[in-house]
Amino acid sequence: MFDIKALENECNLKAIRSSGSGGQHVNKVATKIELSFSVIDSLVLNENQKSIILDKLSNRLTKDQVLLLQCGETRSQLKNKGIVLRRLVQMLKEALKPRKIRKSTKVPKAVIKRRLKSKKINAQRKVNRRKPELD
Q1: Phi, psi of 23 (to 5 degrees)
Q2: What beta strand segments (E) does 3-133 contain?
Q3: Beta strands in 23-131 (DSSP E)
Q4: I need a surface site. Which of 27, 41, 104, 107 has the fewest CB within 10 A?
Q5: Beta-carbon count within 10 A of 18 CB
Q6: pLDDT tens-digit profile of 71-126?
Q7: 91-97: long-range contacts at Cβ-Cβ below 8 A with a sequence spacing of 24 or more?
Q8: Nearest to residue 35, comparing CAs of 54, 8, 17, 55?
Q9: Taking the CA atoms of the chain, what radius of gyration do you get in angstroms?
C-alpha cells in the first residue's frame, strides 16, 4: 500500500501546550502533538491514491489540502506522537480501502406476500372506521 516510515518522515509534528487538567504541569510542558500532512506534496502516495484521499477526506482537509490531526490524550509527548501517527495511518488506510459493490438480490416471495397481507389488513381497518351506509 504505502511505506509507513517514509510517511512519518513527510509529516510535520509540532508540540504545543495541552489544555485540560494537569495543574502546573499543563502550563509548563508542551505535550500535545499537532500533526500536519500535505496530501498533494506527498511522495509516498501515487496520484491515484492522492485523488482517492482528497475525495474521501475532503471534509478533514484545509484549503491547501493539508490534513491536520491533534493528540493530547496523555501527559507524555512521545505517547501522543505515537497515537497521532497511528491515527494518520489508520485514516489513510480506511480512505484507500475499496468500497464493496452492492449485489442486488431478488425479493423473496414470502416477503412480498407478507407486505401485501399487511396492506390488506390496514385497508380493511380503514374501511371499518367509516360510518355505515344507511339504505
Answers
A1: 65, -140
A2: 12-16, 32-38, 66-71
A3: 32-38, 66-71
A4: 104
A5: 23
A6: 988 888 999 999 999 999 999 999 999 989 999 999 999 999 999 999 999 999 99
A7: 91/57, 91/60, 91/67, 92/2, 92/7, 92/53, 93/1, 95/52, 95/53, 95/56, 95/57, 96/1, 96/49, 96/52, 96/53
A8: 8
A9: 28
